[in-house]
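Example record

The entry below shows one chain as it appears in the dataset: sequence first, then structure tokens.
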Amino acid sequence: MRRQLEQRLERMRASGTDRLLGGGRKGLEKESLRIAANGAISLTPHPHAWGAALTHPCITTDYSEALAEFITPAFADVRDTVRFLDDIHRFAYQHMPDDEVLWAASMPCAVADDSAIPLADYGTSNIGRLKHLYRVGLDYRYGRRMQAIAGVHFNYSLPSEFWPAFQNDDEDRGELQDFINDRYFALIRNFKRFGWMIPLLFGNSPAVCKSFLAGRTTRFHQMQRGTFYLPYATSLRMSDIGYKNKNQSALLVSHDDLKSYISDLRRALKLPYPEYEAIGTRDGDKIIQLTTSVLQIENEYYSYIRPKRTTLPGERPSDALEKRGVEYVEVRALDVNCLEPTGVSIQQLYFTEVLVLFCLLESSANLTAEELHEIEYNELTVALRGRTPGLELVRNGGRVSLRDWSLEICARVQPLAAHLDAHMGSSVYQDAVARQVEALNDMELLPSARVLATLRESQSEFHSYTRELSLKHRADFRARPPGAEVTQEFDSLAAASHAEQARLEADRSEPFAQFMDKYLQH
């Protein structure tokens, strides 16, 4: 029996809907630590010329004041997305201290003390204070090291004109937004099944600095004096020393449908957690976390992929989803590609897009408790030892060769890649898939293997290796300063963001305590 992907593609070809598949909109969020001349995380404020981190649409901060986050608009052509990200980097480097660099890797270095990582400061407005206090809570819950890890998020949505045609092809007669929600959740379920492919193919963090491990070196191999690694790791960022959060391991969030997802998230926002209750919400007069629940806010829930809806000022993510439905998905499994100046390669984005579309069009049953355990096992196994010869993952209660399953997925996405290429008049998607098949047949070609090979051959410590790459990327960007038009655009955005932050800080109509209580009670 043919699988749903082939059946859907056939119906879409007959109706002409297939021409819309290539119009998906792609955006990026790329994090980078600012590193000082001594190799430590920068203690300088977010550069004023970049704009206000609270209100700038493209240049902000994540957890730390030193953890810059560059956000692109969503473009139909991923080349435009990467070009915009390149423009942000070129502008940013024109307004950074001469002795600072943007760290080229996901994993931070020279973290001798958690307290040396400065928390992001968003000013004195109510929403700015709330964002800062949320990060104070993350410090008390998980420590600052984990939060200083950088990554790349791939934001993807289908064009609006695609959905009515797709709904008609699927012979669905319900409300359009309900159909959109259901299909995005089908995509998310499948990505949870197959998303381990992303750290396997593009993981770029098989090694860490000794300082990051804070003495927890027992299971690691030592390479150079300050460098520890796992020989077959792909992405320590996505492992239990990174974003695999043990405190959330028992948190079950349904991805059956939007209603169940929101209900489970809101339950976690109210469910007390003993360890966090022991911390409390205050240390004297100082607020140290927003709540003692499993989650302070929705964004604390870590996952390879999330349903997203643009929020209005002061609106909670779950409220936005409930009122207006899913707008796009956020794929969170990409490491910063240290070999690329922008942290991403167009080829890996082409492959990621094909995999996401495959997840949308293929059949997608609800996830059982047993399958969720399999997903958890597969994600952690790939992160820690994904290149192990003969490695097996779990599928449907049995064991399956990682290599065979990976090649099977590549074979399944190949017709979709060919379809996208046909409408573009190119071969970029097929080339991206072919490149990954080549790497699966010779895993020494994978980025994680290449990083370890370079460290061995050069006898460099991870810190010095990454610093040299960071300096090289800085030189590349500074050799290509932004033109007048790009400079004017980002100068205008910066000025507008400072003005908006000043307006928010001038508004004293609501005491902060009242604002926080109202926000948390939604």
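Notes for this example: The CA atoms of residues 346 and 360 lie 21 Å apart. The longest helix spans residues 402-424.
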